[in-house]
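@channel sequence for tomorrow's demo:
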Amino acid sequence: MVNLENIQGDLFSRGFPKLNETYYFFSIVPNQEKDFTKALNVLGKSRLISSLKEVLDHWARIDEFKAKQHAQPSVDFSSVTIPMANALIAFTKKGLDKIQAGLTAGALGLNQLTASDRGSDRGSDPAFAAGMAAEDKLNDPPVARWDPLFKATTPVHGVIKVAGSDPDMVNSRLVLIQLILKLGTLITDIAGQSPPTSVSSRIDGQVRPKDKGLNGHEQ
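structure tokens (generated this afternoon):
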């Protein structure tokens, strides 16, 4: 039996329900690896990182609300939004290396990622280990055309994605996570800014923005 409380929620095929979302990229401060792993453990117990069960419950609430809309066509529900926010955290290979440095040697089994023979090592992922700049088979833009955020000299060790019903709920969830991970002490911003977002280290946006002729709704 799979424990849905032990799986990050965005792995579900429908993803997070959202109208707004933020991607916050961060770097782990040098020589703070051990304290960061402790903070990461606290974050995992805080329930600020959404489990698959939580996300499935959120989608069930949305589906129930949509059924109610369908059953009452004469009622205007256009101004009604179900308040919610969800978050995930993910790491680059360099970020996992930093976490490994704060743990018992070999605890993450990162040596498996660099194996080139996928047939003999099911855990191998040499493309992930090499990094995006070294991968030329994904038809990505060349490094020279990357967003400024990803060309910064500060290494990207991880990303926090927060999605929700409105910008305030998204930002509040992000701030709580940053407090646990001790922004400015254990983690730091990436020295870069992604237009049109005015905040360093972040990419903010509305899902399906209306100014592009889309409906602006994902819920």
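heads up for whoever presents: Strands lie at 20-28, 85-91, 158-164, 187-189, 202-206.
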